[in-house]
Design brief:
The chain has 108 residues and is an alpha+beta fold. The protein is 35% helix and 36% strand.
Amino acid sequence: MKNRTKLAAILGLALGAAAVVLAQQGSFTGTLTDSMCGTTHMAKDKTPPDCTRMCVKDGMKYALSVDKKLYTLEGHEPDLAKLAGQKVTIKGSVKGDTVTVESVAPTN
């Protein structure tokens, strides 16, 4: 009887952990920017895409602004550079405020 209880507890924990991992996958739509400027670009003499690329070149990370929340983006930097300043949809896994990018596409 004790073995069945232990087995049930282990299975319950395993299923709970799997649910947490799946819950971290998501799709996010917002403005592709950088981690320093967000949607208020500081280089007033540059367009938002140019300011974003300049900030990333200077060491900032690409970021996605979604409803006043800023997610730092990891991965797919060449694709992100092409779409800087645009409204995009990003699919990936989220951990805290960081999204590991699996795909990025422009949004109409």
